[in-house]
Every structure is written in C-alpha cells, then in structure tokens.
Write a structure and sequence with these properties.
Length: 334
Amino acid sequence: PRRGVAGSDHPPSRMARSNLLRGLILVALLAAVSGQFFVNLGDKKKEGGSGEVDTRDKGGAGGSDVGAAGGAVADQTTQVQEDWAAFIKWFRSNGGIISSKLTVKVRNGRQGVYFKERMRRGETIVSFPRNLRLDEKTAMKGKAGHVFQRLKNEDAFPDLIVILHLVHERSLGKDSFWHPYFKLLRSSYNNIMGLTEPQMKTLLRRPGCENTYNLGVMMRRTFNNFYEYYKKNVETWAPPEFLFTRDDLMWGFNTLVTCGWGQQGGNGDKLMVPFSDIPNHRRESAQKASNRGFISAAKEYQAGEELTFDYGLLNDAVLAYYGQPTPDCRGLKR
C-alpha cells in the first residue's frame, strides 16, 4: 500500500488510499483547461450564459489611458504569436502534427485558437505524439530522475510526482525541454483556491453554490495534504533545485487540476498533453476534447472562427476552476 499524502509513518488502509485518490479524480472531474477567474472581481463584462471559458491569461495592464491599453494589447498579441510559433516548431520537431490553418489571437482581452482559413470537416486538426506526454515516466527519464525515483520508491502518489515534475521543469526556464509548451500555460491562477475562509463561507450561503463550495473544500484539502507531504517527506532531503515555495507548489497543483488528463487505464494518475488543453472551453462545442490519437474537424470551419473544445466540464467545476459564473451559481457576485 502507498503512503498517505499527509505523510504518516504508517501506510493507510486500502480504503483510505482509495478515498484520497478518488478525491484527486473528482478534483479534475473529466478534463479541463486553465482559465480566467471572475468571482469576487466585480467584472460586469463577463456573463455565464455563453458557456465559454477563457483558457489563458488576460494581457495588458489596467488603466484609463486608451493608447497605453491599445499598445499593451498589441504587445501581448505579438508575444502570444511568437510563443505560438515556437510551440508549433517544437511540437512538430518532436513528432506532432498540427494544422497550419491554426493561429492564436487575442480578442477583447481573451486569447484563443482561431482558423486562418477554411477547414473542411474531417481534416486533421492535431495528432498527438506519444512521446509528448508529461507524466511520471518523463519525470523518471529526466536529469532529475533520481529524485523522482526515490519518491516512487517511497510510495509517493504519481500525481504528486507529476506536480513536482511540472514545478521543477518550470524553474529551469529556457533550459527545460517543455519550455515552449509552458509559455502557453498560465503563469498564475486566481481561482477558488485563492478565496479566504470568510469568502468561502459567503460562497456557501449563495443560492445554488453548495456543490461549488464542496469542490473547493476538496481541492484545498487535497493541496494541503500534498504540501504537508512535501514539507515532511521531500524538503528534508531534496537537492536545492527542489526547494520550492508554497506558491510554486500551488501553481503546479492548479496546473495539473485544470490541464491534467487521466491515464488510459482509468487509475486516476494524471498527465499533461501539449495542445489538448490550449483551446478554450465551450459547452456543447462540436469538438470534444481528447488527448489520444488525433483530432479531426467535426464540422466545416470558416476563416476567423474560433476553435473551442467541450471539455465535459460541469458548471461546478467551471466556477471552481475559473470563477466563471454559471446559471447554477453566480459565485460571489451580487
């Protein structure tokens, strides 16, 4: 049996381990992308009816200077397109196939994947190479493999290994093999994990928000268990490059929760698959998200149309992960 995440000296019972693993599975639900948080920000521009979730950071600094804002948006667009070009080159050089008809744009402060020209139904959008899966196996094969092997020998949960793998690779910057992919991921999150305890209580009192509150409690409890495990069982012996702050680990946790996929065996262990988490989420989109094989166009797309995926998210998860108000729960908005 595996050691408990809380780091107890005695292995947990099979039921206890099952409950904890089930918690991690429920946190991720089906699959998700990283997104934008609107709860408690008083953002009147975003409404819950569209079912869309922005998967990227907003660009540009706030302020009343229209010229400065326009310049910031232009700079962000340029940077995003440069990052996209670097990602495409990296993805293809490692065996991936991705349509040249795709590009990224920032519209109304919202980053998305768009078609540059018409794509017919059935054309290939993307084909995922098996070697581009960031998981426990790639952690073992890297330069820090000895660290992850020790964690595995000490019965750490695979998801915890992947989180540390993410944070470590991120800390390497341009020296990381995954750097082009990381450039398209969020650098920070402002989701339910950042709410204070009074705010959480306020959320619970809001009509229709009980399920979102319960999911948030589960997420926070799971992260706290992980952080305790890290402090007690990893930090005490880890090399300097594995000494991370709580914020570092929170980023890894949020990234895996919102971008991670379950392994094919259905055992709850998670992995990251580049591009499968980049398009924005839209309920009932023609395209269903997938991280295996390839994705072909489910309909005919026109130039300028956005590529969105239906990630199978429940409203509770949309709000907890991204703060996107839904018909069920408006969050902390009044």
